[in-house]
Amino acid sequence: MPTTTAAQRREQARADYDAFLRECPTNQLLGRLSDKWVSLVVAALAPGPMRYSDLGRKIAGVSPKMLTQTLRTLERDGIISRTVTPSVPVRVDYALTPLGTSLAGLLTAVKAWAETHFDDVRAARETYDTENPA
Amino acid sequence: MPTTTAAQRREQARADYDAFLRECPTNQLLGRLSDKWVSLVVAALAPGPMRYSDLGRKIAGVSPKMLTQTLRTLERDGIISRTVTPSVPVRVDYALTPLGTSLAGLLTAVKAWAETHFDDVRAARETYDTENPA
DNA sequence: CTGCATCCATAATGATACTG
DNA sequence: CAGTATCATTATGGATGCAG
User: Fold this and answer.
1) What residue stretches are annotated with the HTH hxlR-type domain (chains A, B) (predicted)?
2) Which nucleotides of strand C lie within 7 A of protein CB?
3) Least confident window among A55-64, B8-17, B58-67, B124-133
4) Model confidence pTM above 0.70
């Protein structure tokens, strides 16, 4: 007879993956996903694969450094794939993996929310600032 | 006769709200939402209102400073409401607004994704690190 | 209890120039 | 084209002490 009941093991498993807990790795993963560039890159790749320079153009304002850094971590996390075509000049394509595709829907939804509800937020800010003068 | 055509105005309106564009305010809003504490606070409030100290306990690892800062920003943006009960000691409850509720579903989905797919990500990292030694 | 103000160390980010 | 290297700047976040 086990020293832990099934209920206890289930409780433990949930605790292990509760992102509210600080030490939990999923907390860190959530931190990764909570990145503006991550959202934009994943959203940009959602319609289909893209080249490095195309991403740089589509995501206006991203520096080469941040773009590379974001792409590297996403690749390492198995969310995107990187394909090098050794032509001249060299060509590199990035695409969502199946794992990345499962995430893309969620992040594009957040991005779409920001675009849709921006007016509401702006109105709320004006009201707040009026009621709470500096 | 207007100096801009309807098509031009439509194009302009879309450009104004395309979060891929850097100067676009929605880009900044997306940056706001792409915050670990924002995700956790909104997710924590999704089931129902909570007091300040309860939030601090539920979201392990958050300092009073960051908690207050996050709550203020969310309040200003119309995503949560703040209710003060002038008892002794004072009691402050935070709750999602309708706007916040519409966002909560999306952010909790991302949080749930992190918890669900963490094992996949971890496996991907091990593979990547094996194939790309330092 | 619920915060706000301040200081401070560190990490993240951005601009820029350069290379295979 | 697809990055890398460097440097300056900013943002983040924790610790602490105090106040309504």
Assistant:
1) 24-122
2) 1-6, 13-17, 20
3) B8-17
4) yes
